[in-house]
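Sat 14:20. Reprocessing the chain from the morning session after the first attempt stalled halfway. Input below, unchanged.
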Amino acid sequence: MLVQNGQPKAVIVIPEGSRSPEAADLQAYLEKVSGARLAIVPENKLGGMQPGTGRLFIGPCQAAARVVDPRRLQPEGFAIKTDGNDLFIVGRDQTDTGRVVKGTFYGVCEFLERYLGVRWLMPGPLGEVVPKQATVQVGSADIRQEPLLWQRKIRDNRTSGHRVIVQRLLKEWGVPLAEWEATFSEANLRPWFSHQRLGERVDFQFGHSFAGWWDKYHEKYPDIFAMQPNGTRVNSNTRERLCVSNPMLWTWWRRTESSNYGRIPI
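Finished this time. Tokens:
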């Protein structure tokens, strides 16, 4: 039992010395859902707890060792597990190379979605769905998840990229530019990205515009470029388009360009 009739029946426990933004996020949404504000207590301060008080352990607390070893999780992975009157949300928050990731935070997101019905449909308060319930109780839980994709992202475009096109569309829609930029501000987008579990355990850099290919290849390989509306394959040296249906493109790419990209560490 975490909350009963709007009254807290548990505490949120974090590792000693941890700031734990994951615990703060969980605390905030539990309060939005139930009206109860659960205390956040460092693990080394649990001595004065009343018998029967529920404990919600967040992150690599010492007590979590009895139910999960974060080192056995993939980076960004997490486990949600009950043990008696205790509930654990533990993730792997660092890669083998020391990169900080958000395994525990993603576990909190899964908990909020699965057990409290919270949804983040779009950035900002308008896109947030928080069902109200005065009592929050979790039965047995034994969940383990690990992202299959090592990098998950969508383009943060807002109005900084393709600005002319965006402004034209907003004008057609009758939406003031300032209102659009406020809705999709950094303050709204970043938490939304995190709640959607967009993140990465590696840093892949990539592009899609084939810059320079027209100047470099159009004379020798004209057929690798996309057919234009006028029936020619004449492109320009700005955002060249390739004819991806032409098998010659792939054969040629393997022979000439693929070696430039090295081995992908998967």
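The beta strands are 3-4, 7-8, 10-14, 40-42, 54-58, 78-83, 86-91, 119-120, 128-129, 142-145.
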